[in-house]
Design goal:
heterodimer, A: 285 residues, mainly alpha, 0% strand, globular, B: alpha/beta, seven-stranded mixed β-sheet, three-stranded parallel β-sheet
């Protein structure tokens, strides 16, 4: 976009900055590289390299418990990302485009899940579900049980805030006159949103969705509290594995999840590129 | 069991909130009982256990034998498990550690077991039937156990050593070890080790004794390479440290994986060491308490108990299973039976003193 390309760093400060950015890059990716390399280790110890092998990958895919946990994680992440993205985007639009009573309070409360400690939120949700189910049982003689449903609801609850933050940032950059122009050209509210606003904020929405997906995939604390029989997710299972010492099984599981999320990122970039070319020229920068 | 301390205390706070919240409507004091016949099943089993702690083949065998489904779920801390039970999630069988059993009994959260339904109860070794956390042995049945001791690299330490806490606490000794020694980064375990080195109990809460223990750790610092709870087994196997303080389950795996396992040994200091026991118990929230009894009985069977131990490599409390155990497991835990071991109990308000003194000793 606006990043100047083809410029090489010249002055000493620029060189220093370039070196620093490379260091940051290494700091981020070296541990991941080590993790991936050692997932192909034949040895049972994470730190001792013997020979390359696919042993741990066979182990992961043959381990029914791990695959079951992975399935649970994917279901929860899928459901919670879908709903949190829609609700979070709606919340961002309402805060950015409309004025209503209690807006400031709503604004503040929306960010609560980001600010409060995770374990507090976990207990709140657990108590909420436990009490709610009790009352429901007293009222109609039936209540749902803890499981993938309660985990998904909890993940939606904290993901809405994260999606809303990301989408709002994007909306803030968008020129509101574009929507007015659309209205001038007789676009209805929905048409203006569908044809103008949504394509422009789509990178933000996709970014928020990816963030939600990632947060859902690796949440341990909240999931642990609101889980139910048969609803163990992968991170909870992996965290419990550490009790036995770290084996390369964890590396292999992590690598599989890493590749999966990289594919997702690539897909979302692809989508954004597609949508950008259709609305090219409308970019306000 | 031994996850990060911070998460543990956070979860414990959460549990306390739940206890307070639940106080209005529970009937602590009365003991819940259930009447089951041997082999009786009354529904599918929701089994809540630690990760990688149960052989899936045993579950399949149980399902085939009794015609019920077993749904296994996993937790990563006792506190997380407790909060779920408090909230009323209907698990039929859980496997908490020693101190948590006491909390659950005190809260009236578990059934008094129907021993008549446990036909294999006699297989359980005598010393595992009653423990300070369950003095009558009526509420829980030991599942697996482990110890905290010292892994020793014989090439670096030599064959002629006395199994004593001096191997990590005597600086005159440890300074000669290439790489030094590693101690667990855990207030209860490491302060407990120092207390035992001094001849006190690991559960001693006298402040003067705790100060003495902290002084032992401070004096030993010259020979201590690291305080570490996660990588000590690998550091030992790699030869980076000469002696490592750590848990039996991790030690046996790490030593077994080295090129020459005979170069290493795992010992329990003669002054005494920590023992931990995980136990099967049935929450009162269970909807299938008789299936749970049948499952406990199934695990108490000699061959099934041996299959479990050969799969997860922890110590077996099942005396009858010994003939069916892999030789290396038998050898490894033989030391434990001879040693003087003690279970860490919850010292309540005194826990903070262990943490504080340990932090002072390390800094």
């Amino acid at each position: 976009m606006s990043v100047s390309t083809g410029l090489r760093p010249k002055g000493p400060i620029e060189r220093l900055l370039a070196a620093n950015s490379w260091l940051v890059f290494i700091f981020f990716y070296a541990p991941i590289l080590v993790l991936v390399v050692f997932s192909f280790n034949a040895n049972n110890n994470v730190g001792i390299w013997t020979e390359p092998s696919l042993h741990w990958y066979r182990e992961v895919f043959a381990n029914e418990t791990v695959m079951g946990a992975l399935k649970n994680s994917v279901i929860v992440a899928g459901i919670s990302t879908f709903f949190a993205t829609i609700l979070g985007t709606m919340a961002a639009l309402s805060l950015e485009r409309f004025r209503f009573r209690g807006q400031r309070v709503y604004d503040g409360l929306l960010y609560l899940p980001i600010i409060i400690p995770e374990v507090t939120m976990a207990v709140m949700l657990l108590l909420f579900f436990a009490q709610g189910f009790q009352w429901l049982d007293a009222a109609v003689g039936w209540s749902p049980s803890f499981g993938l449903g309660t985990i998904s609801l909890s993940h939606i609850a904290f993901n809405i805030s994260f999606v809303a933050v990301v989408v709002r940032a994007r909306l803030g950059q968008m020129d509101p006159r574009l929507e007015e122009a659309a209205a001038d050209l007789y676009a209805g509210r929905w048409q203006a949103f569908r044809m103008v606003t949504l394509p422009l904020i789509l990178p933000g929405v996709a970014g928020g969705a990816l963030l939600a997906l990632t947060l859902s995939l690796d949440d341990v604390v909240i999931t642990n509290f609101v889980a139910g029989p048969g609803a163990t997710t992968l991170p909870v299972y992996v965290f419990g594995l550490v009790r036995r010492g770290v084996t390369p099984l964890i590396n292999a599981v992590s690598t599989v999840m890493l590749v999966a999320s990289m594919v997702l990122v690539a897909v979302s970039f692809g989508l954004q590129r597609g949508s950008r070319s259709r609305v090219s020229g409308s970019n306000d920068r | 069991m031994r996850t990060t301390k911070m998460l543990r205390s956070a979860a414990l706070t959460a549990v306390l909130v739940l206890v307070v919240a639940a106080c209005g409507d529970d009937d602590t004091g009365t003991v819940a009982t259930v009447d089951c016949a041997p082999g009786q099943v009354d529904g599918n089993l929701n089994f809540y256990n630690w990760s990688e702690y149960m052989d899936p083949d045993l579950i399949t065998a149980f399902e085939a034998q009794y015609g019920v489904d077993v749904v296994e779920s996993f937790y990563e801390s006792n506190e997380a498990m407790l909060s779920q039970i408090q909230a009323g999630v209907a698990y039929d069988l859980v496997v908490p550690s020693d101190y948590m059993i006491k909390i659950m009994i005190d809260e009236g959260l578990v059934y008094q077991l129907d021993k008549e339904a446990l036909t294999n109860y006699g297989n359980l070794a005598e010393e595992f039937r009653t423990q300070p956390y369950d003095p009558s042995g009526d509420f829980s049945v030991a599942y697996q156990y482990g110890t905290t001791g010292l892994g020793v690299n014989l090439e670096l330490v030599g064959d002629a050593f006395v199994p004593s806490w001096a191997l990590v606490f005597d600086p005159e000794l440890t300074q000669n070890f290439a790489g030094g020694v590693s101690l667990l980064n855990d207030p209860r375990e490491t302060m407990g080790a120092a207390l035992e080195y001094l001849g006190y109990s690991i559960n001693d809460t006298t402040i003067e004794h705790l100060e003495e223990a902290a002084q032992v750790i401070r004096d030993a610092r010259a020979g201590i390479a690291t305080f570490d709870s996660d990588q000590y087994d690998e550091n030992l196997a790699n030869g980076e440290v000469a002696v490592a303080h750590g848990y039996s389950g991790n030690m046996i795996v790490a030593i077994g994986e080295t090129e020459n396992p005979d170069n290493f040994t795992y010992v329990l200091p003669e002054e005494g060491a920590t023992l931990w026991i995980d136990n099967m118990t049935i929450p009162t929230i269970s909807t299938a308490p008789c299936t749970a009894h049948t499952f406990i009985d199934f695990i108490l069977d000699a061959e099934n108990g041996a299959q479990l131990t050969n799969w997860n490599y922890y110590g077996s409390p099942n005396a009858a299973s010994v003939p069916f155990l892999d030789q290396e497991v038998v050898d490894f835990y033989a030391a434990t039976e001879a040693a003087d071991t003690e279970v860490i109990t919850d010292t309540g308000d005194y826990e903070i003193n262990f943490t504080d003194k340990f932090a002072e000793a390390k800094s």
